[in-house]
Amino acid sequence: MGYKIKEMYYTIQGEGFHTGRPAVFCRFAGCNLWSGHEKDRKDAVCDFCDTDFVGTSGPGGGEFHYAEDLASFAQNLWPESVNAKPFIVCTGGEPLLQMDDAVINSLHENGFEIAIETNGTLIPPEGIDWVCVSPKANADFILQQGDELKIVYPQPGMDPAMHKDLEFDHFSLQPMDGPNLKKNIDRTVQYCLKHPQWRMSLQTHKFLEIP
Fold first, then answer.
1. Which residue, 33, 71, 84, 113, is the most exposed by fewest CB within 10 angstroms?
2. pTM score of the predicted model
3. What per-residue confidence (pLDDT) applies to 1?
């Protein structure tokens, strides 16, 4: 099968548990909660998404016909002769619409540690090294275990307390971006202070103005 990639580039992970870690970002095109077109936003399950995942026109984007080609392209983005295990973050859109055993095996063969960022509506293939789930209100939430649960906060209909006993090693709240960001940051701070099981995640790449 072919793999449609919106963009793939080398950067610093800006949010979640691995904030600050150099990583290849591989953004898969497409999502099952929104078409990505503004005309459809009001009817989307996730109507606050701030990511362009439509098409294959971004930096490093394209259609890779074989998993080996995708993995080779990613490997070429990683700096040579560094004393660090290559790390790739597979995101979207929704990466699990396309990720399969072939992609995972090819990335591992190229030395990568593989992380995904998923909305939790699909079960991933075996072998992914780090699973970060960011559930959305009003969407099916079936992937209820993993390494990190990261909730965009606040979301109407999404109370973090509903998920505090799930099988995750790390629990993060990330203030919702947009016109109410300052207020949402304040609310997230207060929630984390009252419920220290939750760690605050900031989108530092936006503050730093890096991809």
1. 84
2. 0.96
3. 67
